[in-house]
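R.M. (postdoc): so does anyone remember the format we settled on? I'll just put the structure tokens first.
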């Protein structure tokens, strides 16, 4: 694997960076696209667009496609540009979703497309040793999958309370992690690669904003239902973190009509009612599967087991009732639900939608409730997005890769056209 080069960012007033981000996002949304069209779509001047395209090409984030050149017969032929996603040379991002009892490695291109993935079971590994073992597995995966392409870094997504600023797993009860410097632990022996971490619910929300449906950029709530249950809120393209990055804890959100006892001492809490763990234990108790694994329940339902299907529909309705509460409080353009059965069978999504619309006082449109755009690849894609999102916000300096100024000037040189 080849790490991205690092240089010191040049000072400036931020306009050049903002313009570069606008151009890169326009290319993401509309590429391949000619510079003239970027000017129309972004509202920037032709000179600014030309300058930013030049910088982005230098950084290897954008490439020109002369084979698709448009010639209208008036003025210079328009050479389209697009994100550099091809081989060789197209930069890639690594991702790891740290789950219970296994993790998933992924490799993404600049459009958030999953190029490779690998499962990493670790149910027999002690929590204290787990970061080291994940790092070993991740390094081997990246060496194989990147195959010499420029690797920008690694994003890591996990449940629980995560503070992405210092890269700390503040609290992950299932793994017994508390105030663990996870980003630093994962970065060791990765050849200087940058590692960023975040909560998986926020990572999926950001993935929807960056690569998913246009409505997600206005507002969305993401509800993650796995072994842990949490949520994320995005407004105007920004995912809310809250003080200490503690936003999104909905494990004890009350589910109407649920009487399931929760370890917190109350009953009807969302995680105790609808988590993978709760559903799997219920399936064992009902004799549906021999061991507590929610994916065995999903497989049983797909094979025609009516008891498994009934249990998954019960969970879907509980998730829908919780979604109704979030809709009424926040009224987002989209509610994105990550839940294992609805990712593979749209019938369970319809159960979620039906329960939500029946109980919500503000939402009568079931189409506002959706599954993630990446489908079953949602977790490794979200993990890689943790690394890619800063790139699209600050493409010139996100990884210390400020391109040289005109005349090949060194980093720190004050280019008189930098504001363009």
């Amino acid at each position: 694997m080849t790490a991205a080069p690092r240089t010191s960012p040049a000072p400036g007033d931020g306009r050049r960076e903002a313009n570069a981000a606008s151009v890169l996002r326009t290319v993401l949304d509309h590429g391949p696209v000619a510079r003239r069209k970027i000017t129309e779509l972004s509202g920037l001047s032709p000179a600014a667009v030309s300058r930013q395209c030049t910088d982005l090409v230098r950084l290897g984030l954008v490439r020109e496609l002369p084979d698709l050149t448009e010639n209208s017969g008036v003025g210079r032929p328009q050479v389209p540009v697009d994100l550099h996603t091809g081989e060789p040379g197209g930069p890639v991002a690594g991702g790891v979703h740290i789950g219970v009892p296994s993790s998933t490695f992924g490799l993404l291109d600049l459009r958030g497309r999953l190029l490779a993935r690998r499962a990493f079971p670790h149910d027999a590994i002690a929590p204290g040793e787990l970061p080291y073992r994940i790092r070993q597995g991740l390094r081997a995966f990246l060496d194989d999958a990147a195959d010499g392409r420029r690797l920008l870094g690694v994003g890591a997504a996990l449940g629980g309370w995560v503070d992405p600023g210092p890269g700390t797993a503040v609290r992950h009860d299932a793994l017994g992690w508390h105030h663990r410097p996870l980003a630093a632990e994962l970065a060791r022996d990765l050849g200087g690669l940058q590692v960023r971490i975040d909560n998986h619910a926020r990572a999926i929300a950001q993935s929807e904003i960056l690569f998913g449906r246009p409505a997600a950029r206005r507002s969305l709530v993401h509800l993650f239902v796995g072994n842990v249950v949490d949520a994320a809120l995005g407004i105007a393209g920004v995912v809310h973190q809250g003080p200490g990055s503690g936003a999104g804890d909905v494990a004890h959100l009350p589910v109407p009509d649920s009487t399931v006892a929760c370890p917190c001492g109350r009953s009807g809490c969302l995680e105790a009612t609808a988590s993978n763990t709760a559903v799997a234990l219920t399936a064992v108790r009902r004799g549906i599967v021999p061991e507590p694994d929610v994916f065995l329940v999903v497989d049983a339902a797909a094979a025609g087991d009516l008891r498994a299907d009934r249990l998954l529909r019960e969970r879907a309705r509980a998730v829908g009732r919780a979604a109704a509460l979030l809709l009424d409080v926040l009224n987002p353009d989209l509610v994105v639900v990550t839940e294992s059965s609805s990712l593979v069978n749209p019938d369970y999504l319809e159960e979620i939608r039906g329960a939500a619309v029946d109980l919500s006082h503000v939402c009568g449109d079931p189409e506002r409730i959706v599954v993630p755009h990446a489908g079953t690849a949602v977790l490794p894609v979200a993990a890689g997005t943790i690394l890619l999102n800063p790139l699209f916000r600050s493409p010139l300096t996100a990884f210390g890769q400020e391109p040289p100024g005109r005349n090949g000037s060194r980093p720190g040189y004050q280019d008189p056209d930098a504001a363009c």
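R.M.: ...and that's the designed sequence above, right after the tokens. Also worth knowing: The longest strand covers residues 150-158. The mean pLDDT is 90.
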